[in-house]
Amino acid sequence: MLNLMKRVKACSIFSLVPGFLLLMLIQGCSKHSEEPVMPDTRPKVEVYAHRGARSYAPENTIPGYTTGLAIGTHWVDMDIVMSKDGEVVVSHDIRLNPDIVRGLDGKFITYRKVVKSLSLEEIKQYDVGRLDTSSAYSKFFPAQAGMDGVHMPALREVIRYVIGKTNYKVGFQIEFKTDPEHNDWTYTPAEFAAALYSILVGENIVGLCEIQSFDWRCLYELQKLDQHIKTAYLTEWDNEPGTPNSFFDPDPAKAGLWTGGVLVKDHKNSIPQMVKDMGGACWEPEDVELSKATLDEAHKLGLKVVVWTWPEHSGTVFNPDLVSELIDWGVDGIITDDPGMLISMLAARNYQLPARY
């Protein structure tokens, strides 16, 4: 401190300031710098960068997460499957997707191998850095940057990469990918939940996670391992009899296929009530499925409500009119392929914005 004062006194502007007063000024500045920052009281809608940010970069890849974090997000979103050798891999598809997967010959695959039949080493031989521009899927993402040498990462790789970039300041939304109609294509829900939980504990991020699934059996198994872990129950529109994932089908086997036999009729015919009763912390309906009434019901039950978009269903990756309505209603979060557009809309409304990394 004495050396600092001598250097400061050497400056002509401070030469007439008594030493004790200068010391008080320095101490005062130091004290002021340690005072807490006033909390941001602006409204907040949490941003979830879907599969990294697949509007702009290859989905579920390190470049995708680099992009999502650079744009800004409160949560990184990813899907997981399991390899033949029991590794948890970040991928949306339980069978290789010919719209995004190229083989060693550089050509898009034509045969959809089950990921469970491949080792992690075999999985990493495929390139997922480009879209097949002849596919219907690619039409939703005209701005996605194509890349070469991009591979499906192990979950541990993504976790460590995100932590290294953000120092534990961004959450992880992780989705189990299974298919109850083809149980042989994946590990059992209990095996899958145990493998994921082991990684979350090992990487010390249990408290930073929301774990989601359409296959509620996986969430039940995870909750058995840790009753405090936050689980997010996914649903889609529309749940009419005879449609996939229909909670209202008169055939109990169909109505309970994705819920492990749990039926909505036993929970006041209410999906939010069903989610609450099954131990969920969050209900995640498709955006076009949600109504103001069901949002209010879920909030009264203490559920967090986060919506998502299915481009193939909605016909677009981002519907600003619908997003505006959802913000006005008071949803807690929005899962989006285009976090940049969502952040722009939130900025215009003076909402809190996520940090960029």
Report on this model:
The protein is of the alpha/beta class and 357 residues long. The chain has two domains: 2-33; 46-348, Alpha-Beta Barrel (TIM Barrel). Helices cover 33% and strands 12% of the residues. The chain contains 13 helices and nine strands. It has helices spanning 2-9, 19-33, 62-71, 120-123, 155-166, 189-202, 216-225, 252-255, 271-277, 292-300, 311-314, 320-329, 339-348; strands spanning 46-49, 75-82, 88-90, 171-176, 209-213, 230-234, 282-284, 304-308, 333-336. Strands 1-2-4-5-6-7-8-9 form an eight-stranded parallel beta barrel, surrounded by seven helices. The two termini are 35 Å apart. 38% of the residues are buried.
Q: Which CATH architecture of the largest domain is right?
A: Alpha-Beta Barrel
Largest beta sheet: what is the strand line-up?
A: 1-2-4-5-6-7-8-9
- CATH superfamily descriptor of the largest domain: Phosphatidylinositol (PI) phosphodiesterase
Apparent shape = globular
Number of helices: 13
Labels describing this entry:
eight-stranded parallel β-barrel, globular, 13 helices, TIM Barrel, alpha/beta, 357 residues
Brief summary:
By secondary structure, this protein is of the alpha/beta class. It is built from 13 helices and nine strands.
